[in-house]
Amino acid sequence: MTTSTHTSLNRSALCSALVVVALLAGVIPASAQSAIGNAVIALWNSTSGTAGNLQTMNGRLFGAIVFAQVQDGDNNKLNLSDRDQVLAFEIRDRRGNPIISFPTAQLGTSRAAFTSWVTANANALVNAFFPAGLSEAVSGRDVTSNNAQEIMQSVILGIPTTSEGRAGRRQVSEAGGLFEVEHYSGDARDGSGFQTLVRLPRQVTVLARYTQETENSAPITVPVTATSSKSINLTADYHPSIAINDEYDVRVGADAHGGIFVARASTLDFGTVDAGGGVWTSARKDFSRVRLAGGAMFGGTESHVPVGLLPEGGDAAALAEAFNSRGLQWDFSYGVVGGYALNRTTSLNGKLLQTLPADSGIAGRPALTSFMVSVSYLVGGLTPIDIGYKHTVSGDVTAHSIFFQGNFGF
């Protein structure tokens, strides 16, 4: 490696690090405060009525339902200040079952007492608010499962189902990408977004997904402010492989990935740095008019909230530490592909993909299942283009997508 190349790589790494720090720093609170308290206050709706500056909130907050009553002591109903009193605070799951509550009779009602209680019960609160992970709570699905499934769809099973003639020509169409527009709903929330994936040379793939989500549009017992969130996931994946069988095109490979997830919500902002790896395999067989293929991948990812960027004091650092203690999240993904050639340039295709969370620190992560149907066409008799529909289910959330997949000329 030349000195200039080494310097260029160092500069690229430094720029990437600065981008990560800038994005994550943008969602970090600037001063010590009650992160959970202010998130709950953000639900307050002036139309719910107040009596003696009493604020009542009963709404959905990420993966839970919260009921709280706060006595406003500083005439600012948009924050939880040291002059406010937390008279009641209870968390239930999305089905209404009680999980944990603030014991005012034993600890009092001051913000200091409430913040200390949040800090002492950080693990239970993180599990209550984010039972399926931070990203799932604001983007409709867990980012770890989504990334694994996108690599399965576009890389491991990224072979076109239209016959391309000689096997040697298949290499031309391996570099490509994906663009997908989606809408999802369920679990009393509604969202939309898009994701794009680009396969680069040297077995590198870049994935980006953006979503915006709303909830609390319908009150539970009292009116609350409708909440919203916007999130972005950026991931780079390295997936080298070798062929071990020519007849069935059997390949075995490795996977290494890293990225960031950033969410800005009207209730609470947060971000994570993600890294992991795994192993995968795939195979395919062509018949006269039919192509069948399958693949599987097993891997782990660790998501880390950068505690060093958080302010001292308050409860944000304790909540971040509780999330970080969850450790590696393991997933097993598999998929099958089937295609029927109508002629030499056009085929009808179907893909079934599923990502199953293995034993991990997040017991509530749901399976992610996708079914796709598409039409594939060979432009110029060589370059495949896929246009289709995708149906995805993750727990109680269902997504409908239109996608375009093909060769982008790399």
Structure description:
By secondary structure, the chain is α+β, with helices and mostly antiparallel strands. The chain folds into two domains: 35-129, no CATH class; 134-406, Lipocalin (Beta Barrel). It is built from eight helices and 17 strands. The protein has helices at residues 3-25, 35-41, 104-107, 111-120, 122-129, 134-139, 143-156, 316-324, and strands at 54-61, 64-71, 85-93, 98-101, 177-186, 189-200, 204-215, 227-238, 241-245, 250-265, 270-286, 290-304, 329-341, 346-357, 368-379, 383-394, 397-406. The strands form two sheets. Strands 5-6-7-8-10-11-12-13-14-15-16-17 form a twelve-stranded antiparallel β-barrel. Helix 5 crosses helix 8 (316-324). The radius of gyration is 24 Å and the shape is elongated. The two termini are 24 Å apart. The relative contact order is 0.16.
List keywords for this structure.
410 residues; alpha+beta; Lipocalin; 12-stranded antiparallel β-barrel; 4-stranded antiparallel β-sheet; 20% helix; elongated; disordered N terminus
Quick structural overview:
By secondary structure, this protein is α+β, with helices and mostly antiparallel strands. It contains 8 helices and 17 strands. 20% of the residues lie in helices and 46% in strands.
